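Side project, low priority. Logging it here so it doesn't get lost.
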Amino acid sequence: MAGQLFISVLFGILLLLIIIFRVLEPAYLLLFNKPFYIHWYPFSKKLKLNQRRILVKDFPFYNRLSPRRKIYFEHRVKEFIANYQFIGNEIVITEQMQILIAGTYVMLTFGMRNYLVDLVDKIIVYPSSYYSTVNQRYHKGEFNPRMKAIVFSWEDFLLGHSTSNDNINLGLHEFSHVLHFHCLKSNDPSAIIFFDEFNEVIQYYTDQNLNNELQQKGYFRRYAYENQFEFLSVVLEHFFETPDVFKTTHPELYGHIAKMINFKEE
């Protein structure tokens, strides 16, 4: 009897805390423009030593994190790999592929609480650029919402990842499309912040004066001006690849991007 009473009281306390949290977080969101919390993993999952070595070798972003946040990063990489199917088309999926692809996505969404999205359920990898029968063209990568798939040419993904100062990163580019679509449809706190700041960011594409200023400075490559989706993807590539140049050249836009993805500099 006493045990049942204890469980009932504990359940009531937990329910009360959930209700209070749901009432308070919107106010916190309005005041501070960020979620009440980002990372909370009672049983965080760890990578194997050889998987962690890949992060240490290939992700400066990971190496700059504090020891505690490295645990969060590894947990998210592990969860990403567990939640999405990796399919090799004429190529064998390796552990390095999984870690680099997952790490790129986790880096992009590290400031967001709900980082796993249901718009995608598979990652398809080709050895190099592949031919699409849909539009009769060769592709290096794409986000296909109907197939719920992200598709990469591994050759081009690896080139974008290993060359860290040319502002071309296929993984970041395609994952930013996924993130964009997710935040347009979701109402979780991170998505709300993303959408609000996106409305500020996209003015640099739609406002003629701001757009002309961007093009005159020539920091963003021409592909950024194809449409608003590509604009956001290219801007995010620049944000992660050459942040110091970005911050100096376009400080206000840089600030909006940092708020949009709740980016925290270590």
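Brief comment: Strands lie at 85-88, 122-126, 130-132, 137-139, 141-144, 149-153.
Revisit when time allows.
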